[in-house]
Amino acid sequence: QQKVQQSPESLTVSEGAMASLNCTFSDGTSNNFRWYRQHSAKGLEVLVSIFSDGEKEEGRFTAHLNRANLHVSLHIREPQPSDSAVYLCAVSIRSNNRIFFGDGTQLVVKP
Amino acid sequence: DPKIIQKPKYLVAVTGSEKILICEQYLGHNAMYWYRQSAKKPLEFMFSYSYQKLMDNQTASSRFQPQSSKKNHLDLQITALKPDDSATYFCASSQQITEVFFGKGTRLTVV
Predict the structure, then answer these.
(1) What is the pLDDT of residues B63-88, one digit of tens each?
(2) Helix residue spans in A2-111 (DSSP H)
(3) Would you tell me how many other CB atoms lie within 10 Å of the CB of residue B82?
(4) Given an 8 Å threshold on Cβ–Cβ distance, is B94 in contact with A42?
(5) Distance from the Cα of residue A6 to its chain's centroid
(6) Residue A18 has what pLDDT?
(7) Residue A14: in which H helix or E strand, if any?
(8) Structure confidence at residue A41 (pLDDT)
(9) How far is B43 from chain A (nearest CA, A)?
(10) Which residues of A touch B45 (CB under 8 A)?
(11) If you ran DSSP here, which 8-state letter would residue B85 be given?
């Protein structure tokens, strides 16, 4: 069974400083990676999807994937207080859309 | 406008009772899913349906039964409710293996 682990558990950054979140996964055949954001009492908002090694940018959000190291990260450029939320790493195999989620990183952006 | 509608938003049920969680999607997707998020646990995959047929089931208990009366509907019937069933239940949908979009969830509390 796939295991997805996120670090840190919580992160506080100042507005405008880069925020970096990490995610490791256990199944090396995984080939579909997404980062979601979850504001309290709301649904999940997909931020960026990445399918091959390297980086993928969507606005202020950049995902980096290194499948050999079983690692995917999310970098948030110029975070704002409205970015404060739980960020979820989601990993799946493209032929099977069963998504495995990490526990999340609680991000707090201070003005 | 929300494209994936889950009803109700909040639900309180008595132990032993039966409830149905409603999900409708207006994205034209042919695949729908249910996920569960319990306190202090990551989001967990429960079921996936494609063209109204069950594709994957990771829920051990037969008390959880998806029901698909229309292509864009996937309701979740839960019988003999237990306090451990308390969680937020998320419905999701996708077109084949592309992006998976989530609803805002139904928060179920079993007392």
Answers:
(1) 999 999 998 999 999 999 999 999 99
(2) none
(3) 13
(4) no
(5) 8
(6) 94
(7) strand A10-14
(8) 64
(9) 6
(10) 98-100
(11) G
